Amino acid sequence: MKRVFLFVVAMCLVVVPSIARPAHAANSPAPYVLGICLEMTGRQSSLGAGVKKGIDIALADVNASGGVNGRQLKAIYVDGESDPAKDVLHTKRFIEVDQASILVGYSGVAPTMVSIPVAEAARTPLISSGPVDSIGPNAKKWIFTVVPRQKEGSLVHLFELMLKRGSKNIAYLYIDNALGQTGLKVMEEAAKDLKVKLVAIEKYAVGSTNMDPQITHIKSAGADGLIITGNVPDTATAVKNAREQGFSGPIFSDNAIVNPEFISLVGKYGEGLVTTSLKALVAPEIPANDPQKKVAMDLYDKYVKQYGDFSLYAGHGWDQIQLVAAALKKVDPKLDPSKPADVVKIREQVRDGLEQIKGLVGQNCIFTMTPTNHNGCPAKIYAPVTIRNGKWVLYKE
User: Fold this and answer.
1) Domain 32-149+296-367 is found in CATH 3.40.50.2300
2) How many CB atoms lie within 10 A of CB 349?
3) What is the pLDDT of residue 309?
């Protein structure tokens, strides 16, 4: 019995000090903490999964090269579960408990929109992977995004391409949430600018699994072209319903659907569908003289090697980390991210650093931020892509 007691005491002496020692105490500086909220389960899980893989690839590269200012980047991941209420709680925890220097992830419009007031009030920079309005008078001081708005990144370009295809009576179908409502405004503005009247505008509720009534109305309006704004599962359903009802005109989609899961869900009905995408999706087809070719191929090769078919959303995650690293390089290296008082200063300097980014070659675009442009992407920077033989390929008019 005495021997057992002595053995237990000896083990405690060995184990306890290693548990009590901080992770960065072995002569390595405290890391910069990144709070990363992603929709890993629920209706928007396909978005979060792709973003996370892009973040993981970029983080590994940055940390392998020594981190930033001699410090590693530490990721704390949480699952928003496609529930905006949980996104808010996670954001508060990142700021108040984890002392995150910056918030990233936020794979969608809804998770970002509900988290904006929290980040703004706590003066903490947040970089979203959703197409939230971050340009002009609507730009929030602490909110940035890597994704172009629908106006610059997808809908206007798709509208013009469909007109060039010969469609004259174009209909619009959208999901009734922030993504779709913003899309409707863009489409109405584009129709006015292009002097074209939309022959039908239909919406469907979040969670809808059948759009036959909306498609019936679109067909009866004489539409010869259809543009859809929705998420992956519902857009696939809308396309199926349209084709099964005999709609033969071109179907184009907002770019929230560009991933392998969509092709699997839509099946044969997706052949010929057109959308827009960051260039990494079709990296091998991009001209060699394109300034984004190198970074696009780098991400594409690493992603395909590790995970298989490429997801558009990986580019969003990759860009977020590149922007984080670029902004952190402008932070005073003497500030310690393990000290709450210094974290406040780091957050302020990261925010200022993001606004100073010029000509950063990313996946979504070549970023140039300003105080009134917290996205930094020009219009029509995305490449048009289509589904051919069950694969995403570059679309050629």
Assistant:
1) yes
2) 18
3) 86
**CA 317 – CA 49 distance, rounded (Å):** 10
CATH 3.40.50.2300 in the chain: give the residue spans: 32-149+296-367, 152-284+382-394
Residue 11 has pLDDT above 80, yes or no: no
pTM listed for this prediction: 0.83
Torsion of CA 16, 18, 24, 26, to 10 degrees: 130
Q: What is the mean pLDDT of residues 243-261?
A: 93
Residue whose entry in the numeric block shows the structure tokens 């548990």: 19
What are the C-alpha distances in Å from 388 to residues 77, 144, 250, 315, 392? Answer: 35, 34, 14, 22, 6
Taking the C-alpha atoms of residue 72 and residue 93, their distance in angstroms, rounded to an integer, is: 21
The 10 Å Cβ neighbour count of residue 209 is 9
User: C-alpha dihedral over 93, 94, 96, 97, to 10 degrees?
Assistant: 80
Q: Is 334 exposed, middle or buried (0-12, 13-18, 19+ CB in 10 A)?
A: exposed
Q: Which residues pair with 135 in a beta bridge?
A: 373
Superfamily of domain 152-284+382-394: Response regulator (3.40.50.2300)
